[in-house]
Amino acid sequence: MVRGRGWRVVFMACTVSCSGASSSDVTNPLGNPGGGSGATVPTGPVAPLIVGVMQADPLGYLEYTPGDAPLVIIAPHGGTLRPASLADRTCTGCETANDLETQALARLVVDRLHAATGARPHLVVNRLHRVKFDANRDVGEATGGTSALQAPWVWLHAAVDSAEAVVQRQHGRGLVIDLHGHAHTIARLELGYLLDGAVLRGTDSVLTTTAALDRSSVARLARDTRSGADRGVALLRGPRSLGTLLASGGFAAVPSAQDPAPRVEEPFFEGGYNTRRHGSLSGGILDAIQIEAPNVGVRDTEANRARFADVLTRSLRSFLATQYGWERAP
Ligand SMILES: [Zn+2]
C-alpha cells in the first residue's frame, strides 16, 4: 500500500459508528500538528482521522466527523451557540438569521445513508449561531471583523479539505452538499450550481453553446460523469439530475425536469461561498451543490424532516451511483 508523504496509518478496533474496512482510515492530509507535545494550535483536523469519530476545533465552535462515502455534507447555518465573548456580527448587509433545523437535517441524512449503505458521509457542522459567525462567507464577512473567529474559519475549510483528501484517496471523485434553508414564498428546493436564474432560463441549447456548465460548481462532473447521457445540461435538469430525483420523490425542486428554471422575478439562491470554494469550478475532485430547503413541509416538523431526509438520501444514492459509479449496500 503506497501512501504519500505525511500520511499516517493507525489501526484500531471498530467501536460505535465506523464501518467495514474503512474504520482504519487515518490521514493527515494537511500536515497539521498531530496533538503531541507541541504548543501549536491546530489549524485543522488532526490525525488520526477516524470514520465516525467527531473532532472539534480548539474553541469548540466547529466539528468534523470523517466518513468513508464520496459525499461531504456541510451545515453552515444551523448552529445555536452564542458565546457572550464573541461580538454579534454587525457588518453592513450581513445576514444573521439562522436556517432552522438544517443541522438536524444534515445529521439525519448522515445516519440514513450510513444505515442504507454501511458508509458514512463526511459531516462538517458550524455550531455557532449566524449572528456570531457565517460559515458560508469569505473570512471578513464570516467573522464580522472578530479576530478570534479567524482561526475557526480556517479550521472549517481545512475540515472540508481533509474530507476531500480522504474522498480522493478512497474514491477519486465525490460530491459536497451545502445544506441551507430559505424563507422564499415558493416552497420548493432551490439547487445552487453557481448558475443564476437568468442563466437557467436559457434553453438547453443556449446553455450548451455558452458553456454555462463550465462556470458551475459541477463543472468537472459535467464533463466526466459516468453517465455519458448526463454530460452537460442534463446534469442540471435531465431525468437523472438531483433536482429531478428530489421532485420525483415528492419535493418540488428547481432546476429539475419538472421545473427547469425560476421565472423572472422569482427569488432563487444560486450557491454561495462554500459551493464556489469547494466545488469543481476550478477543477477539484469535489463537485458541489447548494440545497436551499423551504421550511413548511421540509424542515418544520420532525415527521417532515424525517420524510425529506429519506428522499434526499435516496436521491443522493441514486445520483452517486449514476454519476460517480458509487454503489454500496450494507
Ligand atoms: Zn443558509
Explain what you see.
This protein has 330 residues and is an alpha/beta fold. It has a single domain (20-324), classed as Aminopeptidase, CATH 3.40.630. It is 29% helix and 12% strand. It is built from ten helices and eight strands. The chain has helices at 102-117, 139-143, 150-171, 197-200, 204-209, 221-224, 234-237, 242-248, 273-278, 302-324, and strands at 55-56, 62-65, 71-75, 122-126, 174-181, 189-192, 253-254, 286-293. The protein has an eight-stranded mixed sheet, sandwiched between helices. A hairpin with a 5-residue loop joins strand 1 and strand 2. Helix 1 (102-117) packs across helix 10 (302-324). It is globular. The two termini are 25 Å apart. 49% of the residues are buried. Zinc ion binds next to loops. Zinc ion binds at residues 77, 99, 180.
SSE order and pairing:
Layout: E1 55-56, E2 62-65, E3 71-75, H1 102-117, E4 122-126, H2 139-143, H3 150-171, E5 174-181, E6 189-192, H4 197-200, H5 204-209, H6 221-224, H7 234-237, H8 242-248, E7 253-254, H9 273-278, E8 286-293, H10 302-324
Parallel strand pairs: 3-4, 3-5, 5-8, 6-7
Antiparallel strand pairs: 1-2, 2-4, 6-8
Residues 77, 99, 180 line the site of zinc ion.
